[in-house]
């Protein structure tokens, strides 16, 4: 066999792919979605709390939010997942048994929250102070004005960056395989990797990769679409967000402090 | 066109010796202002003299350091500031409408969340109020799709929908194209005629002359001279006011 066709076989062995496909669809895909979606929900809620704490007038809220963000953005995702997933496992064992998913979701959420918190904060701070004044002049308290007027506008402006973070989550969900998964708990990456390991052929892993693209590429286009809509829709002062997806990147929030 | 539907509850307003500093910068140095029930006071004066700041101390968007604000003779400084602001409507130079909501939502938000009106009632109040400023047909568009003059009339309607006892206007027409100014001033004049107690910070001397009961000239954080328009415009006592008038008239 010539080297080229060997290479071809290594990645595009249709039989190997066909063999892995059913498990990918019935086990891997749902599990990846469960991990990513629950972490997205929890991470967004935590992120919003961090964002509000981050712009609070109280130092005792601002400070912890700052430290949290620095820590969870600064650590490699793999390290965080291991630290939480393994470190808290004895505790988890007593509460929900040996299932690694709760701690996996928790770790993913805590990481995502650090990024999403910065995204939301940048968005909220980009809303003009006059909006807060307008709402307060009607009789809304600071909290009501934030909740009803400022936060909805701020979040809208950073939706593209938020969707980017969901893409990162989908990819990072593959890291929970560190925590040890039984057959039915395996997500896309782990299933691909298992097939690759037993057959010595990478085709199943490539198939897993295609599934990831199936999830992430439409989201990428959704980002662009939302971005275009926001730009066309009205002349919003979109904050300059420069959020990278790897833990080294930091968003660059701009804009005024709405107090 | 009558803008106000229920102004029977108008109150008198008094600002007494209000002081305010932003850090080291003393902005208000004992400002006084009296507006009778249903009266209209126009506040004029050079840029930076503290006109906007004075308005904001009346509804306590800014808390005065010293002095008092009275509605119908009773100090409001002990009241809950959020409840107080529901009784005092305010209109800003830049409208401050909520851009992510329709015009109707801009009006119903406070009605639903603060006045606790059920949705259908809030919508009805809002539509009636929009109708009074001639914008019922714009209920379902976003503010950005309106002209500046229309946006300001929506902002006025939004404040009036809460049935305030006093209205504050901070250069409500300064951001408008000249041809749109008249419509907004017309709404304000109607409101004044209907008996709303109003404090109007304005550069529109014609409006002040025709509509105001009292014209107050502010300079360097105090009301230097106040009186009926004729007295202020025709027989100004203070040289600073005379110089100001010679520049703006
Ligand atoms: N939030 C603030 N913090 C610090 N200084 C302020 C603040 N708001 C106003 N000032 C200062 O207070 C002074 C009075 O401002 P104010 O806006 O009340 O003046 P104004 O009479 O309304 O002027 P204009 O006609 O230009 O609107 C100005 O010197 C301004 O710089
Ligand atoms: Mg001003």
TrEMBL record, chain A:
UniProt keyword Transmembrane present: yes
Signal peptide: none
Location of the protein in the cell: Cell membrane
Pfam families, per the entry: BPD_transp_1
Membrane topology: Multi-pass membrane protein
Single Gene Ontology MF annotation: transmembrane transporter activity
ABC transmembrane type-1 domain: residues covered: 29-223
GO cellular component, as recorded: ATP-binding cassette (ABC) transporter complex
Main subcellular location of this protein, as a coarse class: membrane
InterPro entries in UniProt: AA_ABC_transptr_permease_3TM, ArtM/GltK/GlnP/TcyL/YhdX-like, MetI-like, MetI-like_sf
Keywords from the UniProt entry: Amino-acid transport, Cell membrane, Membrane, Transmembrane, Transmembrane helix, Transport
PANTHER family according to UniProt: GLUTAMINE TRANSPORT SYSTEM PERMEASE PROTEIN GLNP, MEMBRANE COMPONENT OF AMINO ACID ABC TRANSPORTER
Family: Belongs to the binding-protein-dependent transport system permease family. HisMQ subfamily.
Protein name, per record: Polar amino acid transport system permease protein
Organism: Micromonospora chaiyaphumensis
TrEMBL record, chain B:
Keywords: Amino-acid transport, ATP-binding, Cell membrane, Membrane, Nucleotide-binding, Transport
Localization per record: Cell membrane
SUPFAM superfamilies associated with the record: P-loop containing nucleoside triphosphate hydrolases
One GO cellular component, as annotated: plasma membrane
CDD domains membership: ABC_HisP_GlnQ
Domain called ABC transporter: residue spans: 13-245
Molecular-function annotations in GO: ABC-type amino acid transporter activity; ATP binding; ATP hydrolysis activity
Keyword field contains ATP-binding: yes
Record-linked Pfam families: ABC_tran
Topology of this chain in the membrane: Peripheral membrane protein
Family to which this protein belongs: Belongs to the ABC transporter superfamily.
Annotated protein name in UniProt: Amino acid ABC transporter ATP-binding protein, PAAT family
Protein source organism: Micromonospora chaiyaphumensis
